[in-house]
Amino acid sequence: MIFSPLVLLSNPITLKISAQAPKILQNILPAKYLNIFSTTETPELWLTYESLVYSCLRTGDEKSANNCLKRLTERFGEDNERVMGIAGLYKEAIAKDEAELEKILDEYENILRKDPTNMPISKRRIALLKSLERPDKAILALNRLLDTSPNDAENWAELSDLYIAQGMYKQAIFALEELLLIHARLGEVLYMSSSTAQTGREKLLIEAIQCFCRSIELCDDYFRGYYGLKFVINELEDFQNSGSQVRSPLSYQELDRLNKLATLKLSEISQRSVNSDFSQQGYSTAELILMREIISHGLPSRSKDR
């Protein structure tokens, strides 16, 4: 959410959220008092402050945005990478002219010289280069970032947008393909298409399997990719067993090996979720629930049993 944190929220909703900021700030104690007066400190509290910073900046309430930022800084420290990214966004929003933006850009580059792995600042630098109408430098920086973080879907999406703006459509298509494969979304769409197709269903299922295989090749612990792979393999085997006359390029042995691999990896990932906070590793609430179901009840062996 560092490039464009509130693009999915409408203006009325953003305005409504930012209007609540003064009341929230008044009713919630600053971080330095929380250990004394509160029994728990929830992650939702700090996510609320972060969301308020974005909303207030978007609606022009710089005072409330600054107060929320101060609370985050008090709690996590100004050297926290996420706080640094939010602080950078705040500075950009209140900058009066291009000269001030150039100064902020210099600050980003100084930070990255000391710590090239600072992802929030790297993304803010790219966003600022884009704002300063330096797409060539933004594209170069994004490609370098993707060399070290190839599974960051947000980076691929931003790179595609930059390529499209420059008329570099071939490169934009490649970036979008990587984005789709990372999310395994292309495999999901192919599967959904197969469920409504009158003809060529087996071909669509095979293409979906290929997409899921590509997604887990890019990311070895990609839960969604493995689950999609197993799901579609079961669907394909059911379809073939129903009397399909179409010959599959994938043999029964190949499908069986892929199915066993997906089963093994899904079980491993799910078991690890018991002993670690997978919510901090990009897994959605739905995926975490599914992992717990796998641990409790095992994996379904056939699609018709789902």
UniProtKB/TrEMBL annotation:
<comment type="function">
    <text>Part of the endoplasmic reticulum membrane protein complex (EMC) that enables the energy-independent insertion into endoplasmic reticulum membranes of newly synthesized membrane proteins.</text>
</comment>
<keyword id="KW-0256">Endoplasmic reticulum</keyword>
<dbReference type="InterPro" id="IPR039856">
    <property type="entry name" value="EMC2-like"/>
</dbReference>
<keyword id="KW-0472">Membrane</keyword>
<protein>
    <recommendedName>
        <fullName>ER membrane protein complex subunit 2</fullName>
    </recommendedName>
</protein>
<dbReference type="InterPro" id="IPR055217">
    <property type="entry name" value="TPR_EMC2"/>
</dbReference>
<comment type="subunit">
    <text>Component of the ER membrane protein complex (EMC).</text>
</comment>
<comment type="similarity">
    <text>Belongs to the EMC2 family.</text>
</comment>
<dbReference type="InterPro" id="IPR011990">
    <property type="entry name" value="TPR-like_helical_dom_sf"/>
</dbReference>
<keyword id="KW-0677">Repeat</keyword>
<dbReference type="Pfam" id="PF22890">
    <property type="entry name" value="TPR_EMC2"/>
</dbReference>
<keyword id="KW-0802">TPR repeat</keyword>
<dbReference type="GO" id="GO:0072546">
    <property type="term" value="C:EMC complex"/>
</dbReference>
<feature type="domain" description="EMC2 TPR-like">
    <location>
        <begin position="106"/>
        <end position="184"/>
    </location>
</feature>
